[in-house]
Amino acid sequence: MPKQSHMKPGKRKRIQSYLYTIKNSESPKVSVIIPVMNERRTIAAVIRHAYRVHPETEVIVVANGSTDGSAELAQKIGARVIRYDHPLGHDVGRSIGAREAKGEILLFTDGDIIIPTRDLVPLIKAVNNGVDVALNKYLGPTDKQHVHSVILAKHTLNIIVSNPDLKGASMTTIPHAISRRARDLIGSEQLAIPPKAQAIALYNGLNVQGVHYVEVGKTNPRRGRRKGNDPLEQLIVGDHLEAIDWFITKSGERGNRYDLSRNRESV
Amino acid sequence: MKMINKKTRGPNGRTRKLRKSPKRSRIGKGTRSFKRPLKAAGIDWGEKAFRAGLLAASTAGTLLEEGSKASETDPQKKVNECWTRWYRSVKRLPWPFYHVAAAKFVAGYRKHTSGYTPNWVLVPSDKTIAAIVTVMNEKDTIASVIEQLHRLPLHEMIFIVNGSTDESFEIIRNQSRATVVHYHHPLGHDVGRAVGAKLAESEILMFLDGDFPVFAEHLVPFIDAVEQGMDIALNNISPYLGLFSRRDYVTTVKEFVNRSMSRPDLGANSLTAIPHAMKKQAAQQIGYANLAVPPKAQVIAIDMGLKVGSAASVDVITRNRLRTRNVGQRNNVSELIIGDHIEALKTALERKGSRLSYPDHIRQRKLTLH
Q: What is the distance in angstroms between the Cα of B296 and the nearest Cα belonging to chain A?
């Protein structure tokens, strides 16, 4: 049985009338892209916090496979909603949102994690000051012997593309912001596979930096993820392999590294 | 005045025995435990092995007449043959027990034959074994490497001396009857191993480095693992790695390659690290040239379905010699090894597709295009 609300049914209407509404800017400086599936509980707060990052902001909600009315709620709040009836798959929403974005700075976040405005502003500021891709510095739990495969993959990718100082900072992690230049260079379609987008950015010499630490591990709900069987883990590791594959095709089989004059013919 | 009693009253009125002495120190326990008579399930294996050695020595004469293998001339191999036969008849022992028992076996054998057996180490295998050592200006350490190798009943010792400008070559020549392959020019990282693997004719190949002496006892588990059916027995470096956040780049990449090949159990163990052992047949299947790029060889081996596993742990991390070219996070050797791993990943990606065994069924990628 669902939990009963303490409020009387009649009072609910009053809350609805207090609904925080936004007005997307006509010529936005910042576009916030929020992929949403079924996140009715959090979406209003996410939009509210995201909208306040800059005076000229547009919020784009990419609702896919949403059945709980989150899309309608977002619409009511005043966000621009791009709607798909079927789930698009992980991160595809970002790519579609990025394609539609009009702002100079693109900020990516998620519909299920409420990130306060104060944690989003540093990313916007960094991009405004010349960083092309401003990442969350959150690495996940690394102070242990055996780390999660996703953390390992993120670190490895940065090492392979010769930017080990980024450690495990990744475009897979939200929130992050990119400049419009970066979007055009990477290509919005590549943003659906964030590690690949990152590899492209780094390979093309874009300024990629871990800018601000936002703890997103504890607040990230572990939906349908059981120990030992995590489909998302498989997907993200696969993404990193795809990124490495792309990098190898671009930079040669040793990734621009010499082999200290090996005499391979000797064998 | 306080009375110091052996017994005192406990909180609930019952008498409680005081601990006689403070907790005994654990320092020095490790070495001492080797000297004590080792007993497992009530059997003193040292004593038993000693008697078996005596017996083996007395029956060795009759065995000779029967015409055993071609190892008659070398007493070390003869002892090892007897030992292998005896060891197979008993249950497998933990390694500390094993080495005590083997030493006692040699002692028992010597008592009968009164030959000279300078701290030999026996291996539980009657396959032919080759040690392959790459050497480049290693005059300070090579002597102790040779010394340790002489303790083992090896059939072949191959030293690949390349680009050496010091007296390494002379030291090897004087101290052993090994096969020495000499190149004036440096062959490059790990190429020597591939050359050695190609030259060796034994069934088990063991790879070592001239700058890193390893106790003969520590090499036995690698040979044993191959004897037990493993194709490639790696050094398990996991105990020496520490926390992930403090590891170097190479270790991270090594671990990623293993996980990508669906072998998370291997941790960061790699053919890059010595010592490791391998079946000659496996080396042939992988291709000798590929052995020059160890991670690539490893990926190929895993992909071919060869049995790759970790045999034992030898600390090569904290004891590794520091040189000008391998200090710091981004040194030449580190970059070389990362390059090796990229090459390895490329090989894997070519063989198994751009996402290996991690397909993407979830995304509707068509929608991302205009």
A: 11
Q: What is the mean pLDDT of residues B19-32?
A: 50
Is A142–B245 a contact, with Cβ atoms under 8 angstroms apart? yes
* H-state helical runs in A170-230: 180-186, 194-203
- B215 touching chain A per CB within 8 A: no
CATH number of the structural domain B129-352: 3.90.550.10
* Portion of chain B with pLDDT greater than 90, in percent: 15
User: A223 touching B, CB under 8 A?
Assistant: no
Average pLDDT for chain B: 79
pLDDT(A1) > 60: no
CA distance A112 to A129: 29
Provide the H-helix boundaries in chain B: 29-35, 45-66, 75-89, 95-113, 142-150, 168-175, 191-199, 216-227, 249-260, 280-286, 294-304, 332-352
Q: Is A74 in a helix, a strand, or coil?
A: helix
**Cβ-defined contact of A145 to B346 (cutoff 8 Å):** no
Q: Do B369 and A242 touch (CB under 8 A)?
A: no
> For chain A, what is the mean pLDDT?
85
Q: If you average pLDDT over residues B241-265, what whole number do you get?
A: 89
> Is B322's Cβ below 8 Å from some Cβ in A?
no
Query: How many angstroms separate the CA of residue A156 from the nearest CA in chain B?
Result: 5
B214: left (phi over 0), alpha (psi -120 to 50) or beta: beta
Distance in Å, alpha carbon of B17 to nearest chain A alpha carbon: 41
A137, A169 Cβ separation under 8 angstroms: yes
Distance CA B39, CA B44 (A): 5
Task: Name every residue whose Cβ is closer than 8 Å to that of residue B273 and which is 6 or more positions away in sequence.
Answer: B234, B235, B237, B316
Burial A197-217, CB ≥16 within 10 A → b, else e: bbbbbbbeebbbbbbbebebe
Determine the average pLDDT of the residues in B141-163: 88
| Residues linked to residue A178 through DSSP beta bridges, in sequence order | A106, A133
Predicted local distance difference test score (pLDDT) of residue A156: 92
Interface list for A 180-199 with B (CB within 8 A): 188-189, 191-193
Q: Which of A160, A189, A263 sits opposite B369 (nearest CB)?
A: A189
pLDDT for the residue numbered A195: 92
Could you give the CA distance from residue A133 to residue A129 in angstroms, rounded to a whole number?
11
3-state secondary structure of B132: strand
Share of chain A above pLDDT 90, in %: 35
Among B195, B242, B252, select the one facing A267 at the smallest CB separation: B195
Least confident stretch, A149-163, A218-232, B314-328: A218-232
* pLDDT tens sequence across A8-47: 655 555 555 567 888 888 889 999 999 998 888 889 999 9
* Structure tokens given for A18: 């207090």
Q: In the prediction, which pLDDT does A2 show?
A: 58
Residue with tokens 């017996």: B55
pLDDT at position B70 = 47
Mean pLDDT of the B165-187 span: 82
Say which of A95, A99, A262 has its CB closest to residue B189.
Answer: A262
pLDDT of amino acid A222: 54
Antiparallel, parallel or unpaired: β A80-84 and A105-108? unpaired
Structural domains of chain A in order of their starting residue, each with its CATH number: 20-220+230-252 (3.90.550.10)
Tell me, yes or no, if A160 comes closer than 8 A to chain B by beta carbon.
yes
